[in-house]
Write a structure and sequence with these properties.
6-stranded mixed beta sheet; binds guanosine-5'-monophosphate; 10 strands; globular; alpha/beta; 197 residues; two-stranded antiparallel ribbon; Rossmann fold; 7 helices
Amino acid sequence: MKLLRKKIEDEGIVLSDGVLKVDSFLNHQIDPALMKEIGLEFANRFKDAGITKIVTIESSGIAPAVMTGLELGVKVIFARKRKSLTLTDQLLVSSVYSFTKQEENTIAVSSQFLNETDRVLIIDDFLANGEAAKGLIEIVEKSGAYVAGIGIVIEKSFQKGAEYLKESGYKLESLARIHSLKEGKVTFVEELEVVKA
Ligand code: 5GP
């Protein structure tokens, strides 16, 4: 997705060989016009997958997930990381090791929002080692629902999550794929593919 790549080039800050900061449009301040385009793109890529629900994780997955839900006409559920006093229902839980915070979190979704008739699209902001995606898959599958696809805004293809998800048979669609963050520079997989072609 060209618009997203341009935004990463213009505003992304490489914090280290493994971490990209995109606080100006995705992780802190949110660019609604870009989110709208992201929603359209995910909806287009998954339009034939029979999606009935979207599942994401708070907080940075919510904006792209909601815009996609709007386009596909389905509800969006976000897994919670903190135990809330109002979350009194039967819970589907999983344990996720956070790449950025380097700590283990229990994530939870109320079982009332998912069941075996659902075909779920999982959406998240970043894919690194796949821990968040694995946790969300576990929650969806515990409910009896089917994981019909995984949509990622920014995939860091040099980390192991993308390969793991594809090898496990999930349909993965990433809107920007980063080949490397070495020497403070973002290199996209798509650019390398153009050079090779
Ligand atoms: P994973 O669970 O795939 O190892 O990491 C994905 C999660 O960690 C995402 O939900 C995202 O919040 C966070 N994350 C991973 N890598 C990055 C990164 O380079 N930049 C930012 N801003 N978040 C990241």
